[in-house]
Design a protein that fits this description.
single chain; about 100 residues; about 40% helix
Length: about 100
């Protein structure tokens, strides 16, 4: 599928974006390159390859399978140290009513 600057302009209009003619030409070329790469990937034989839901491995101590452990990372005084306003125990924020 050939992406033209006019096609990019039509999509940009739907998204309420405005681009110069130079930007439309550049974006059309970039989108064309992406679609050409997708066509190349679609031409690969993936018979017998199991689908992945994520390219990142989730095993190990930093993965999603780690045990949930409650811990206190910072003390109250350390947490409140960077707040613009506190009463010594809680954050003070403007009243919203």
């Amino acid at each position: 599928m050939k992406i033209t600057p006019e096609r990019v302009a039509a999509v940009a209009k739907l998204a309420r974006l405005t681009f110069t003619a130079e930007e439309l030409t550049r974006f059309a070329a970039q989108i064309g390159d992406i679609l050409a790469y997708m066509d190349m990937l679609n031409s690969l034989d993936t018979t017998g390859v199991e689908p992945l839901y994520s390219p990142a491995g989730l095993a190990g101590p930093t993965g999603a399978t780690r045990p949930d452990q409650a811990r206190q990372a910072n003390s109250r005084s350390e947490t409140l140290a960077n707040a613009p306003a506190t009463d010594g125990e809680f954050f003070l924020v403007p009243r919203v009513v």
